[in-house]
Amino acid sequence: MQLVKKGKTKDVYQLENGHYLLKFKDDVTGEDGKFDPGANSVGLSIEGVGRAGLEISSYFFDQLNQANIATHFVKANLDEQTMEVKPAQVFGKGLEVICRLKAVGSFYRRYGEYIEEGADLPQFVEFTIKDDERQDPPINAEGLMILNILNDKQIEQIISLTRQITSLVAKDLAQHQLDLYDIKFEFGLLEGSEEVVLIDEISGGNMRVYQGDRYIEPLELHRILFSK
């Protein structure tokens, strides 16, 4: 294996078969020692969170593949905390797509003069550019096209896929008496194809989940989903 990239929460290796291997770590994003899925830097390490994130990701990727929603997922090895994925090209230098069901986090910090915290949102889809130095700035559809990051067809596809995937995840969580407040995705083009697919992960570190008014930490989310 050849190390390609050391990321905040995962390291990336290239495999001899042309696929890539994502190594999940116990680091999570946050500030001042407190976990925050919307933060741009590693804030702390939580023992076991890498394996938990991998198992949750594998769980949801399997559901998406069964629903014929294309992803880069091939297989996971929980003992080694690795996920094998197909090669895919990211958009621009990296793009994140957030689906918001509740007015919390950075959405509320920006627009709190116009909406109550925790108010319902109709699957509001927001794009941000991955740029730690500039705090992952939001960008609208026109900006994405002007900068040649996405074309209009890709924007429509990503918004549609984001809402489909969010609905699937939210429905599954609801069966465990959990409410999804927001969730963050990444998309790309499969190598040699123009097909837009979900890439990266779908873990507790990429979503805000509540039970009533109580926030559910990533490790607790894993326990709830996989408790017998």
3D architecture notes:
With 228 residues, the protein is an alpha+beta fold. It is built from five helices and 16 strands. Strands 9, 10, 11, 12, 13, 14, 15 and 16 form an eight-stranded antiparallel beta sheet that branches. A five-stranded antiparallel beta sheet has the order 1-2-3-8-7, with helices on one face. It has a three-stranded antiparallel beta sheet with strand order 5-4-6, with no helix packed on it. Strand 11 and strand 12 form a beta hairpin. Helix 1 packs across helix 5. The longest helix is centred in the last third of the chain and has 23 residues. The protein is globular. The termini are far apart. The model has no long low-confidence stretch (mean pLDDT 92).
Outline of the structure:
It contains five helices and 16 strands. The protein is of the alpha+beta class.
Detail the poorly predicted runs.
none
What is the overall shape?
A: globular
Order of helices and strands: EEEEEEHEEEEHEEHHEEEEH
Biggest sheet overview: 8 strands, antiparallel
Strand content: 35-45%
Q: Mean pLDDT, nearest integer?
A: 92
Structural class: alpha+beta
Query: How far apart are the first and last residues' alpha carbons, in Å?
Result: 36 Å
Number of strands: 16
Query: Could you estimate the helical fraction of the residues in percent?
Result: 25-40%
Radius of gyration computed on alpha carbons: 17 Å
How many H/I helices? 5
Task: Summarize the topology.
Blueprint: E1 2-6, E2 10-14, E3 20-24, E4 27-31, E5 34-35, E6 42-45, H1 49-66, E7 73-77, E8 82-85, E9 88-90, E10 95-102, H2 105-111, E11 120-129, E12 138-139, H3 141-146, H4 152-174, E13 179-190, E14 196-199, E15 207-211, E16 214-215, H5 218-226
Antiparallel strand pairs: 1-2, 2-3, 3-8, 4-5, 4-6, 7-8, 9-13, 10-11, 10-13, 11-12, 13-14, 13-15, 15-16
